[in-house]
Design a protein that fits this description.
The structure holds two protein chains of two kinds. By secondary structure, chain A is an alpha+beta fold. Chain A has two helices and 20 strands. Chain A has two domains: 1-80 and 224-259, no CATH class; 84-220, no CATH class. Chain A has helices at 2-26, 225-257; strands spanning 36-42, 45-49, 65-68, 71-78, 85-87, 94-97, 101-105, 111-114, 119-121, 127-129, 135-136, 145-150, 155-160, 166-171, 174-176, 184-187, 190-192, 201-203, 212-215, 217-219. In chain A, the strands form seven sheets. In chain A, strands 7, 8, 11, 15, 16, 17 and 18 form a seven-stranded antiparallel sheet that branches. Chain A has a three-stranded antiparallel sheet with strand order 12-13-14, with no helix packed on it. A two-stranded antiparallel ribbon of chain A has the order 1-4. In chain A, helix 1 (2-26) runs antiparallel to helix 2 (225-257). The relative contact order of chain B is 0.19. Chain A: This is Flagellar basal-body rod protein FlgG.
Amino acid sequence: MRALKTAALGMTAQQMNVDIIANNLANVNTTGFKKSTIEFQDLLYETMQTGNRDGEKGRENPNQLQVGLGNRAIATNRSFSEGTVAETGNPLDIAINGKGFFQVEMPDGTYAYTRDGSLNVNSEGKIVTNSGLPIVPDINIPENSQSLSISQNGVISVMLNGEVEAQELGQIELVSFMNPAGLEALGGNLFIQTEASGDPVYGNPAEEGMGSLMQGYLEKSNVDVAEEMINLIVAQRAYEMNSKAVRTADELMSLANGLKR
Amino acid sequence: MQFELTKLKQAMMGQVDRNNVVANNLSNVTTAGFKKDEPFFHTLEDELDISKSMSQATDMSQGDLRNTGNPLDLAISGDGFFTVERGDSEVYTRSGSFRIDNDGVLRTRDGLPVLGEGGWINVFSEFGTPSQITITEKGEVFADGELMDRLLITAFENPKALRKAGSNFFEAPKGALPFEMEEPGVKQGFLEDSNVNPAQEMIELIEVQRQFESMQRMVRTLDDVYKSAVNKLGIYR
């Protein structure tokens, strides 16, 4: 009874589908979160009878019988469509209006990328993310600065105490990827590059393809609750259908048992 | 009489195979690019020389196109298959979920190279990684506006001869007669959903169960007939 295992694999796959949807729904309010979908692939086929068109005379049999053995999850695909932008009024909240990413330095010296622009200034005056990772390139905010402004092209300027002219401190750099869907999620709203995403392309905000910065705004999650609900219904029904296939296989075996009295 | 039992056995085994095929369809109800299998039965010839009473044909009808927005997700609207190199042969797929490796080669999720008209498709130019990849309806691959290659979209004069090879691939045995499509309908940012129709599969499941049941009854009736033959006719008085 292959059907039992085949349908069980289908159920496992749908379970994983529900896991992904649940994670999307859990992050419906996470800043800069990008939703994922799961992709499946069919498994091996057992060829029980091959089509035979040029066989012996009178025994031609053009029909074949190939029985598939179920499916498996091969990949999760992240959708990098932009989320809605919400105003916060906080001068260190930045949304990227385009496909760029902020680059941050991890504690081990490697780089990660994020769309979460809720930034802070740490005790050394560096601009860091909410989890304390410094953004690249380093920008130091002097202690006696009063107001901070970030232009659309990422130039950070501050007004120092007692001065009338604003002082430019530096420019935020963005990176973009050829195939952002291939980025690997690290958690904490961070992504790292993979073979599939390609190498990062560096550029300044508001340059071609990067997107301009919006100070005082945050990008919300791009999860669409209605869409996730529909996916959930599909996953649940698909799970149910597979369980029906298991039941039918069970019934067939029970009937076969009933053959001999 | 022996003969009837053999026929019933064949028919029951056929229903079991049919159940396996339906279970595989249901298992792949959310698999991108999956094409469902339709089980069907033949009349048995008197000599019973066919080992199986059931066969299957793949329904190549179009699945729904689902928008994913990812530049490396491709779907084909209409006929044709993406051509993929596996070992020293070519396999074909309708599942266009691709990626690009470190050297810029377009590959499937299993890491097999996707073929263009000029062989493997490499999207890296002398300037390195492109920032944007555009694929037109005709399958032309542009990296930052520069034409790199054209996807090889293969169609078949006799698609019925195609065999499934697993992992969303099809193999083309001799007689499938492949040819290159001039005007394919490649859609960037879309994936093709499975063409399994759940309602139809449910009905198949009901049919399988009831037909199996009725054949089981027939076997039991035959069994009763044999029993009376042995116990009543065979008694020597």
